[in-house]
Design a protein that fits this description.
192 residues, alpha/beta, five-stranded mixed sheet, 5 helices, globular
């Protein structure tokens, strides 16, 4: 389980414009770094998401020359074993309402295979405290490279976190983790 304070300052009444602009600038810097690193190693990424509702895909699409490294993604709002894109065990999906570490890992591996990418990121979880989540907010995410899961984690948030803030937080944190994985590759490359 990973807990990290977020720099996102959103309130119920309004989006705090200054904090939100700062968040967007930081996100853009992070995405530019990711794009440069992927281009340097001539590798690609795809995304599968539920709880972030396409925000990761949107984020990657904002990077200059994104088509060089971002090959696309899929957003499914409900992973129940019946949808065509993912082959998920129907009993497991039903039992956990499509939210589990195994489902995040399967989503990551399958989206990479379908988009034929070197890397993939997948996330499934809850942006609002609901009965199915036992009124808790959490998400599972996985990052794969070359057909292997290299990182799989759970993120927990306070149950009173606003849904938009939860989605942005999940996205920001996952992209930060992806940057760290790319940093490891860069360090390995420099050591050779």
């Amino acid at each position: 389980m990973i807990l990290k304070p977020s720099k996102i300052e959103l309130t119920i009444e309004q989006l705090n414009a200054k904090s939100f602009i700062h968040f967007l600038v930081e996100l853009q810097n992070l995405l530019e770094f990711i794009g440069e690193e992927l281009a340097a190693v001539h590798e690609t990424v795809s995304v599968a998401e539920t709880v972030t509702s396409g925000f990761l895909q949107f984020s990657f699409s904002q990077v200059k020359d994104a088509s060089r490294f971002f090959k696309g993604g899929i957003t499914e709002q409900e992973i129940n074993g019946e949808l065509d894109f993912f082959t998920i065990d129907r009993d497991e999906a039903s039992y956990c309402h499509g939210v589990s570490p195994n489902i995040a890992e399967e989503m990551a591996l399958q989206v990479a295979a379908k988009f034929k990418t070197d890397w993939s990121i997948a996330v499934t979880g809850y942006a609002a405290a609901v009965k199915e989540s036992q009124h808790k907010l959490y998400a599972f995410f996985s990052i794969s490279r070359h057909g292997k899961i290299i990182l799989s984690e759970k993120l927990d948030l306070h149950s009173r976190t606003l849904p938009l803030k939860a989605q942005l937080y999940y996205s920001e944190f996952i992209l930060g983790c992806f940057k760290l994985e790319l940093d490891k590759i860069r360090v390995d490359r420099q050591a050779i």
